[in-house]
Fold this protein.
Amino acid sequence: MYFQFEGVTKEILDFFNVKVKKEDSTDIEIHYPYLDGSIKVCKPFLKNKWSYLSEDQVNPNPKVFGINQLPANGEMVVIAAGEKDVMALYTIGIPAICFNSETTSLEPKVIKALKKKFKEIVLLYDRDNTGFDKSSQFSKEFKIPSAILPAGTYDKDVTDFLAAKGSKEQIELCLKRGIAKYYRSLNSFKAGELEKMKYEDLDYIIPGILSSDSLCALVGGSDSGKSLLTLQFAISYVISKDFIGHTVNGGKKVLYLSFEDSNGTLAGRFQRLCSKLSKEEIALVKENLFFKNQRDNFVLQILDHLKRNPDTGVIIVDTFAEIASGRDINNSGEVRDVLKPLQEICFQNQLAIITIHHIGKAPEKEDKMSKTGIVGSQSFEAAMRVVIQMNKSKNQFRLGITKGNDIVESKKAPNSTISLTHDLESLWFFKTIAIKSVSVSKGTKQAKKADWKQIFEDEKELRYGVILQRLIESGFTETPAETLISKELKEHKISKGLYRNPTLPVAEVGEDDEDDHFEL
């Protein structure tokens, strides 16, 4: 049956008065009745599959499908891309209608009638450029939310999503997310609409630290690893992978504005950063991480990208000095002029923008962490919701929060910082964990056995460079540490440079970690 993968049964077809004429498996004709009396005909296996019957018998009613099958009232109704999507949503208990096509303008009197019956009307069009463009256009024109289906391996619409084993819960989450995002973008609203803006998945990218609708900065001295760390974060965000040991609420697209590094440099870094990822993770990153390297009209470039990719969650600007080229960065007015469009993009699109900037030579030399060390006008720091500083001293990396509007002082530098270990093979940074030295017998130069429970702590797996670093910190010299890894972890090697925690039962390996609190 043509509808079998969407769960659309004969009873549902009858409920929507849809007629299916089937000559054979490759010759199917489907009749969809519209409110205006017209019959939309679909021959799915033909090149020109759409046509109409009864055009001479139409009535003054709007050309809309599924409206007579809606409940008398409810919390929400969806405007879908097509008839199959309407019926597919019905199978999971979500009421929906559709107009003639995504490109057809919505009928004002239909929207007015729906607003009287339902608390929310949400657009849920196809996950393609036409769907993105039209849902954005109609959302603004008719003042209704729009939602985007989750990214995945299905084709592009609701029907494909459900056929690929997508769930009702996933669709409901994306609808709730779309509603919250819409209300957060309003410039004026009633107090009663504040509760519609609350949706935890929208609040933070890194819980308690990086909110999902803010302008933030990563600052540091020259050659301190800022660009490499943000590229690692971009990859982590796309695949929802922990970042320096902490949960990342990602899974959306990233735009990286790279104005300092050449394409060749980026290519080399990207290849090494992806070297330890799975094939599936690499495919996701290649599809959802975008680069631009022309600084002229950078705001227009961002807006053009967002028009084509509205499911973008993070934009990285590398560096502020490049987008402020020709401006006096010591002049507060000129700095604000550069940053204001970025702030507006954050709020209107519910995404985070991370701007890379420099600190002065003096604080860099003194290895100090303070928001007063940022180069240029104080208005740069004032515009940021969060400022994180990265220091490098004698090949040692440190990270600390120097500004955080909603972060307690005990979590900020200099009260709290973290050290990073840099794996030179994969270029990934890892949070360094302080490890007590392994006890050594009197007269023994160093420990003979490694305490793997202490080395791995609660980690399910670690990379070679991190294990080596921790062994050295616990009292081993480099050569014996390498020998230990080679001999004792041989049976626990997952892939090149990646080892499983030998102290955990096999069943525990690969289970999800519980969220931990991000503490800088």
The two ends are 57 Å apart (CA to CA). Residues 434-447, 508-520 have pLDDT under 50 and may be disordered. The longest strand covers residues 396-404.
